[in-house]
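Q: Please design a sequence for this.
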C-alpha cells in the first residue's frame, strides 16, 4: 500500500511541476507589444474573440478613457489602451463589474 501512495505523490509532484512551467510560459504571453491594441489583439491577449471585445465596447463596459474609436465606412473600429484594457477584460470574463 505504501508504494501506491508513493506513486500517487510522485504523480502529483509531476503535475504541479508541469503547471508551474505552463504558468511561467503564460506570464510572458500576456504582455502586449503596443500601447493601443485592436479588439482582436486584446481578445487574443485574454483568450476570447475580438468580436466579444467589440460588443463590450459598444455596451459601454470599458471606460471612455480606455477606448479610441474611429469611423471607417459605416462602422467604428476600436483601439484600447492595453495596459488598462487587459485587466478590465479579464474582470468582465469572470462576471465582475469594471
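A: Design:
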Amino acid at each position: 500500500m505504501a508504494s501506491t501512495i508513493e506513486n500517487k505523490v510522485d504523480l502529483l509532484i509531476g503535475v504541479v511541476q508541469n503547471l508551474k512551467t505552463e504558468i511561467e510560459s503564460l506570464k510572458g504571453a500576456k504582455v502586449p507589444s503596443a500601447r493601443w491594441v485592436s479588439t482582436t489583439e486584446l481578445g487574443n491577449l485574454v483568450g476570447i474573440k475580438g468580436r466579444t471585445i467589440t460588443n463590450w465596447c459598444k455596451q459601454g463596459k470599458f471606460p471612455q478613457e480606455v477606448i479610441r474609436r474611429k469611423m471607417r465606412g459605416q462602422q467604428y473600429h476600436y483601439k484600447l489602451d492595453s495596459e488598462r484594457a487587459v485587466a478590465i477584460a479579464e474582470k468582465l470574463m469572470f462576471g465582475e463589474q469594471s
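Q: Thanks. Anything notable?
A: The chain has two domains: 1-30, 32-98. The first helix runs from residue 2 to 29.
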